# Entry
Amino acid sequence: MTDVLTAVGMLSGSTFMLLAALGVVRLPDLLTRLHATTKAATLGVTLIMLSVALHFAETAVVARAFGIILFLLLTAPVAAHIIGRAGYFVGARLWNGTVKDELRPHYDPLTHRLRSGREEEDDPASGSRHGD
Amino acid sequence: MSIVILFSLALMSLALCLAFARLFRGPSLPDRVVALELFSSILVGIIGVVAIATDVAILLDVAIVMALMAFMATIGFARFLERGGPRDD
# Structure
């Protein structure tokens, strides 16, 4: 029973990793590639680490496996957010089928300023600034 | 069991090759950083499967260090991109 579950976890985890790599190769621009690698690869590592915990079934190993899972679940979104942000700032081109880019009318890439469009009503000195 | 281990190792090696294709081709530096991050995730998975295959539980420490280093490298590359270092895309 444990062996079967371990085998299923390993196979599905590696399949999800293959899907992530396929997405990285096939998808058209930076943000969609980020979407593929972050979620699918995190799920793949999670499944493999679960099967590692099932296979060994000792306290120390299970704690380490769950530590890896927790660490990945914490860091993968942060890393993806930070790469996406940096990529947008350096002007990575979006896919030409992109429907909506809500940041473009408000953000000036040269001065690094973000406007809310309501600066006239407020005090101009305390207008919305982009905090770095 | 060994067939399952071999098959999943083969799948992950194929995934490594695909990620390397994006690393090689990637039109801009952020794309290459994404490919590197995927590399490290796949390596953590490979280390996990090897730990199962060889019954060596201490290999999980290597996986922890790998994940940590990859996160640090990603943050470093992102800072580098935002601060505007010299690039040749």
